[in-house]
Design a protein that fits this description.
Length: 223
């Protein structure tokens, strides 16, 4: 895939959701032949399907590369209450700020669901406790994922355009056996363990694939 040509098409789509600064970030990455993806919010049905395929377990750490507005990491922390950490890495500073606001809003929403009609002081204490719990388990990192350590990660979720450097970067940074879940696009160098169909990415009809991979053992591959 010619990423420079793709950049023009995808940044037009991205213009529906973000401003010029965000488009410039991704266009520059495409021009410099680096892995990238536009920010286009995934439908919630797709988020739920991604997390189902990820099969998050208690005590695990999940990483969303290119976490956008934080919807995947937030849903992961809400759905898997014993998840150790739901971490997002996002290059766009504006989206990092938006994600952190959404975390606070969702924490308070989740707290309110279980409060009922208690006294105001009890209500406030429960809100604070629930918000703190969610905030402690959800983390948004403002960085290029190529510069982030991933040794503690058990599951990676990502939406990236196909790029030859992506598989090499993940294989270098992640432990063998780490689960990697991608939406729409494949990692061509790896064979998927599982493929399912979910709601379409850009259209009202049809479907889009979700791929589950496990990071190969580099030593085994080179042997």
């Amino acid at each position: 895939m010619d990423l420079r040509n793709s950049a023009r098409g995808f940044t037009k789509l991205q213009a529906q959701f973000r401003g010029n600064k965000s488009r410039r970030i991704h266009t520059e990455r495409a021009r410099n032949n680096l892995p990238w993806s536009p920010f286009v919010p995934a439908k919630l049905e797709a988020v739920y399907a991604l997390l189902e395929v990820a099969n998050l377990q208690p005590g695990e750490t999940m990483l969303d590369i290119g976490s956008g507005d934080g919807r995947v990491v937030i849903e992961a922390a809400v759905q898997c209450l014993e998840l150790k950490k739901a971490r997002g890495v996002e290059l766009d500073e504006a989206l990092v700020g938006l994600s952190k606001r959404r975390i606070l809003e969702r924490a308070n929403q989740e707290a309110m669901k279980s409060i009922g009609s208690h006294e105001q002081d009890v209500k406030q204490n429960k809100i604070s406790f629930a918000a703190t719990t969610l905030i402690e388990r959800v983390e948004i990192v403002h960085a290029d994922f190529m510069d982030v350590e991933m040794n503690d990660v058990d599951v990676v979720v990502l939406f990236f355009l196909p790029h030859e450097q992506l598989a090499n970067a993940l294989q270098t940074k992640l432990r063998p056996g780490t689960r990697v879940v991608t939406y729409v696009f494949q990692i061509a160098q790896w064979k998927p363990v599982k493929v399912i169909s979910t709601v379409p990415f850009m259209t009202a009809k049809g479907s889009s694939p979700i791929y589950l991979y496990q990071v190969p053992d580099v030593t085994w591959r080179q042997g």
